[in-house]
Amino acid sequence: MALFEVYLAVGVTVVLTLVVYGVLYLDKKRNFWKSRNFPCTGRSLLIYGDYKGMNQTEHMQYINQRLYNEFKSKNLPIGGTILFTIRTVVIVDPDLIKAILVKDFHAFHDRGVYNNPEVDPLTGHLFSLEGQAWRQLRAKLSPTFTSGKMKMMFETILNVADDLKEFMLEKTESGSTELEMKNVLAGFTTDVIGSCAFGIECNSLRATCCRFREVSKQIFQQSVAQMMWQIFLMLFKGLATILKLRATPAEVEKFFTNMVQETISHREQNNVQRNDFMNILIQMKNSEKLEEQLTINEITAQSFIFFVAGFETSSTTMVNCLFELAKNPDIQDKLRSEILKVCGDGRLTYESVSSVEYLNMVIDETLRKHPVVDSLLRTCNQSYDIPSSDLTIPEETFVFIPVHALHNDPEYYPNPDRFDPERFNADNRKSRHPFVYLPFGEGPRNCVGMRFGLMQTRVGLITLLRRFRVKAGPNTPERLVVDPKSGIPAPLGGLPLLIERL
User: Fold this and answer.
1) CA pair distance 102, 141, nearest whole angstrom
2) 10 Å Cβ neighbour count for 246?
């Protein structure tokens, strides 16, 4: 009995010691900025830091917006924050944002996202790679998204748009119908990406079960455990690399690996040539120029990120746009008039789709009010002295550029809740600081697929608005509420809209 009591006492002592050290460690992390007299909130919680409820009860874009507003109200160019135990900063000043993204890019060239292509091949894509590996891959892939390549894929997108038109005509055959448009447009973009990236007809608009859609849910709807795992990998990247830990769910990797290998094998064995993204990557794989060559794993990773970046972002942009047009019928009527004036009612062309200037303004205002990338993430790879300040960003600090907060700042966009495409006419564009509008990022690490994303968004919207009127239905919310658990800021519970044939 005495021996048991000794063991019990030792065990209790060890547990208490670990708890004390744990609390001291968390408290040191929590007070990192305060102890250095760096501007901060001064109220970071022991475990959550400044981001309690992130992606569970509240989307991160709203938390960053509050932090941005707090630091700006104190006339600060930057503020220190804590994300769990990760030291982060929120950037307020547009000139400092420009320096980080462009002028001093050498000090902020990485995103800090965990990647280990040797053991987790799908992490070897352009978004997460760092340093020289990123530079080499960016140089290889940039020519893939030129205007010429976009024109090459345009007809493929039009064929999917024809399916969208027929689907909507079927749904409105008996009159006005309320449809959950997030699902409809997710089906459209899934079919576009499936066709352009893999040469596969998903037919997800009508399919009761689509494997692409099922896999996408695993990527975009993360549980608390998955979110914590991703943060752990970011926080302990070195250890995670040594231990060969994985960020990608095994089922997701298996799906994309099999899809790409089967597609490449079929095309090479049957000499299949298509005007799509996969065809370009296969040509690069078989290039005689060493600097252009891609491995199958690299092709798989790029196809994966092409799907991730092109599917959810474009469908969310379109549904957000339709919501605003339903709430602003005068803008919708003006846009439809411009579309019919430029494009007519016949077959669309790449040139006509790109030439509807008011559509571009409407899309820009949609991305201003509802950016699908709510913040840009960078890491400071060397100690950085903030210009015109006595403040220094320490090495290995995560940097948040709060896009949503900038886009909804009344200093730059008066009455920011109002949907007003005229904010993006030529004169208003020139009058604003260029770094307060960042839907696709900026600088060397901007979105390489921007042209493709805008192209499928324009085609989808034109296809709908030429033949249908969009109205608020009985189940349409008064305002958009972002799903706190969505990686991309998507409407909570979907978005029902009333669709009426013209």
Assistant:
1) 20
2) 18
Pairing verdict, β 86-91 and 398-401: parallel
DSSP string, 384-453: EEPTTSS-EEPTT-EEEE-HHHHHT-TTTSSSTTS--GGGGSHHHHHHS-GGG--TT--GGGS-TTHHHH
Alpha helix positions (H), 328-424: 329-343, 350-354, 357-369, 403-407
Q: Residue 269 is encoded by which pair of tokens?
A: 């064995």
211: helix, strand or coil: helix
| Separation of alpha carbons 25 and 75, rounded Å | 31
Q: Which two tokens stand for residue 41?
A: 């909130």
Cross-strand bridge partners of residue 468: 501
State how far the alpha carbon of 185 is from the alpha carbons of 163, 331, 496, in Å: 12, 21, 12
Q: Is 249 in contact with 113 (CB distance < 8 Å)?
A: no
The amino acid occupying position 125 is: H
- The secondary element (H helix, E strand) that includes residue 81 is strand 78-83
Q: Residues 455, 157: contact at Cβ < 8 Å?
A: yes
- CA dist 389 and 478 (Å) reads 44
Structure tokens at 329: 């019928």
First vs last Cα of the chain: how many Å apart?
87
Spatial separation of the C-alpha atoms in residues 81 and 101, rounded to whole Å: 20
- What three-state secondary structure class fits 180? strand
User: pLDDT tens per residue, the chain (502 residues)?
Assistant: 466 666 556 566 666 666 565 555 555 667 788 888 888 887 776 667 788 766 677 888 999 999 999 999 999 999 989 888 888 999 999 999 999 999 999 999 999 888 899 999 989 988 888 989 999 888 888 888 888 888 888 999 999 999 999 999 999 988 889 999 998 998 899 889 888 877 777 777 776 666 776 776 666 666 666 777 777 787 778 888 888 888 888 888 888 888 889 888 988 898 888 888 888 888 888 887 877 788 899 989 988 888 877 778 999 999 999 999 999 999 999 999 999 999 988 889 999 999 999 999 999 999 999 999 999 999 999 999 999 888 999 999 999 999 999 999 999 999 999 999 999 999 999 999 999 999 999 999 999 889 999 999 999 999 999 999 999 999 999 998 888 877 788 888 889 999 999 9
Question: What gap in Å lies between CA 352 and CA 368, rounded to an integer?
Answer: 24
d(CA 434, CA 90): 19
Assigned token pair, 129: 């790679």
Q: Using CA atoms, how far apart are residues 421 and 406, in angstroms rounded to an integer?
A: 17
